From TrEMBL:
One Pfam family in the UniProt entry: Cornichon
GO CC, alphabetical: membrane
Family: Belongs to the cornichon family.
GO biological process per UniProt: vesicle-mediated transport
Its membrane topology: Multi-pass membrane protein
Organism the protein comes from: Macaca nemestrina (Pig-tailed macaque)
The protein, known as: Cornichon family member 4
Localization per Swiss-Prot or TrEMBL: Membrane
Lineage, opening ranks: Eukaryota, Metazoa, Chordata, Craniata, Vertebrata
């Protein structure tokens, strides 16, 4: 069962790396929340606690979108110098986090006996 959890998490992490590059917020939110809940259910506390702040940040960003906006990133204001730097910094941090998780899931899944 644990191997299935880590294989699913590994595949989901690959999808999250792809989604974080293209700023697809809702699929990224759903995928990351699923992995976080899955780690909680399978009692992998360290990985759950590692994923919890990022999942919470994704939910917070989605909830704080002003009404009338198409998404988290307003296309009319994204080229403002300060906002573009901020969004790129957030994207690089998420990409680094997802890469870390990718290798952690890969190692954790292969480290379990069959």
């Amino acid at each position: 069962m644990e191997a299935v959890v880590f294989v699913f998490s590994l595949l989901d992490c690959c999808a999250l790396i792809f989604l974080s590059v293209y700023f697809w917020v809702i699929p990224e939110l759903i995928g990351h929340t699923i992995v976080t809940v899955l780690m909680l259910i399978s009692l992998h506390w360290f990985i759950f606690l590692l994923n919890l702040p990022v999942a919470t940040w994704n939910i917070y960003r989605y909830i704080m979108v002003p009404s009338g906006n198409m998404g988290v990133f307003d296309p009319t204001e994204i080229h403002n110098r300060g906002q573009l730097k901020s969004h790129m910094k957030e994207a690089m941090i998420k990409l680094g986090f997802h890469l870390l998780c990718f290798f952690m899931y890969l190692y954790s899944g292969s480290n379990r006996p069959c």
